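User: Design a sequence. Structure:
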């Protein structure tokens, strides 16, 4: 292995920092050809120089490390198509962020904003099938699809049907930098039993503040602003949360146009004597 190089040479030839190279090693993305057991010095083969450069190129596009690993496992045109698909999503996310600039300006300037109109409603007690997992923002769409499929399969096997819209309870703030438990729930009035990862529980009756979103407003991070708007409304009304925030999904999700109502963002709260309906 006379042609191996050290981490310093690899950093120089790839334009990556020592810190980044150590991170890519820890993530299994760029594992050294060998590591000295005494000094811990990393040594890399010549073919890893090009891999390091490609990682740097994709990171320059803002691609997450998990997605980079998948792209590097592809050959030729398949890798190119994966990059195109990623960039299409990135541009859509950027457009969603740009659309939220007016809202951010109003909030930071202290002016009232009417982007999200908040209402209140009573929600009765309901029995739900549920499935939960720790996820980040990038992992959330795939989990929602997988959980929905599992819950529908469970309902079908039990000869049961939905009694209301699916909803996802966020037991923490989901972001690109941190995961949280998200619980997908399927209401039903039919007899069902838990099985495997699918549980059955009763969702307590509650009053909630909510705002309605169109299909265009549902992408990350746009939906985060909706959560912020409802939380700010509750703060302004002096109302305390009684349960975790949730998203309620309506049946037209797949067929909806950009301006169709498909989702509600809601926070259950403890009503006060002075609570009024908006």
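Assistant: Done.
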């Amino acid at each position: 292995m006379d042609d191996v190089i050290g981490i310093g040479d690899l950093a120089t030839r790839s334009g990556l920092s020592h810190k980044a190279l150590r991170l890519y090693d820890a993530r299994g993305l760029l594992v050294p050809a060998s590591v000295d057991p005494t000094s811990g010095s990393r040594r890399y083969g010549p073919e890893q120089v090009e891999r390091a450069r490609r990682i740097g190129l994709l990171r320059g596009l803002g691609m997450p490390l998990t997605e980079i690993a998948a792209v590097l496992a592809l050959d030729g045109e398949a890798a190119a198509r994966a990059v195109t698909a990623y960039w299409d999503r990135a541009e859509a996310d950027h457009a969603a962020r740009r659309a939220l600039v007016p809202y951010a300006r109003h909030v930071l300037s202290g002016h009232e904003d009417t982007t999200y109109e908040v209402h209140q409603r009573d929600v009765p007690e309901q029995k739900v099938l549920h499935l939960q997992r720790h996820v980040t923002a990038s992992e959330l769409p795939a989990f929602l699809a997988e959980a929905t499929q599992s819950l529908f399969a469970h309902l079908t096997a039990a000869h049961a049907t939905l009694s209301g819209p699916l909803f996802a309870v966020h037991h923490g703030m989901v972001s690109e930098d941190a995961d949280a438990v998200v619980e997908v729930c399927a209401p039903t009035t039919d007899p069902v039993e838990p099985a495997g990862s699918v549980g059955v529980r009763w969702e307590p009756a509650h009053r909630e503040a909510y705002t309605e979103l169109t299909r265009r407003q549902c992408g990350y991070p746009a939906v985060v602003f909706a959560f912020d708007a409802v939380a700010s409304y509750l703060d302004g009304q002096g109302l305390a949360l009684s349960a975790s925030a949730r998203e309620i999904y309506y049946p037209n999700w797949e067929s909806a146009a950009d301006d169709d109502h498909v989702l509600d963002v809601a926070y259950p709260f403890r009503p006060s004597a002075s609570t009024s309906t908006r």
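The helical segments are 7-14, 18-26, 47-60, 65-72, 76-99, 101-109, 140-157, 222-237. The chain has a mean pLDDT of 88.
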